[in-house]
Amino acid sequence: MDYAAARAKMVANQIRTNRITDPAVIAAMEAVPREAFLPAHLQGIAYIDEDVALGGGRFLLEPLVTAQLLQVSELAADDVVLIVGCGVGYDAAVAAQIAGAVVGLESDPGLAQTARRVLAEQGFSMVTVVEGPLGQGFARQAPYDVIVFAGAIAAPPTAITEQLAEGGRMVAVIADGTGIGRGTLFVKTGGIVSHRVAFDAATPFLAGFEPQPQFSF
């Protein structure tokens, strides 16, 4: 399979035609070989416009959602970025094409091992993959200029929000499990975090971030 041609087609048909206009994001999506982050039996579907199931309830987000999250975050060359639930490392690699340093937080040891291996093979020395509970973030490297959730969440945990730098941006698909999710930008200004909805997305939940059941008596 000609993966370079498939990647070019993905950018032309999925990215550029869906209001992705940031040249840095487009260039990053063009540069990173998505198939390299997937096991051999999934590489043939690396560039479809759907989430790719990795097993264990984890997914590689569809390319458009990755591009939308990064575009809304307005990544800059000197930003320090945290990817919550970095999985196999693809989103971290795309972000690293633009930002200065990226921390990929992953709770699954197998996914973290894959991410470290592929990122090293692809030359992404500016990405550090760390293991730990996703809901706690990674305070040791905080504060972060940008925080990206690589999956839908019911709400951002306070522990992670507190790791956002002043002027920092946090992006996530917020969903309640009953309908389509909302790609949302959170911005910290004067110590206060405000938010606005930027796009719609039917994104699977990041494990551990699903809505909590409500009990009634």
Strand/helix succession: HHEEHEHEHEEHEEE
Indicate the low-confidence ranges by residue numbers: none
**In total, how many beta strands?**
9
Q: How far is the N terminus from the C terminus?
A: 57 Å
Shape: globular
The profile of the biggest β sheet is: 7 strands, mixed
Reading side by side through the largest sheet, how are the strands ordered? 5-4-3-6-7-8-9
Helix content: 25-40%
Overall radius of gyration: 16 Å
Short description:
With 217 residues, the chain is of the alpha/beta class.
Can you describe what's shown?
The chain is α/β, with parallel strands linked by helices and 217 residues long. The protein has six helices and nine strands; from the N terminus they run ααββαβαβαββαβββ. The strands form two sheets. A seven-stranded mixed beta sheet has the order 5-4-3-6-7-8-9, with helices on one face. The chain has a two-stranded antiparallel ribbon with strand order 1-2. The chain starts with a helix and ends in a 16-residue tail after the last strand. The model has no long low-confidence stretch (mean pLDDT 96).
Task: Describe the structure using short key phrases.
alpha/beta, two-stranded antiparallel ribbon, 217 residues, 7-stranded mixed β-sheet, 29% strand, 26% helix
Topology of this structure?
Blueprint: H1 3-15, H2 23-31, E1 52-55, E2 58-60, H3 63-73, E3 80-84, H4 90-96, E4 101-106, H5 109-121, E5 127-131, E6 144-153, H6 158-161, E7 164-174, E8 181-189, E9 192-201
Parallel strand pairs: 3-4, 3-6, 4-5, 6-7
Antiparallel strand pairs: 1-2, 7-8, 8-9
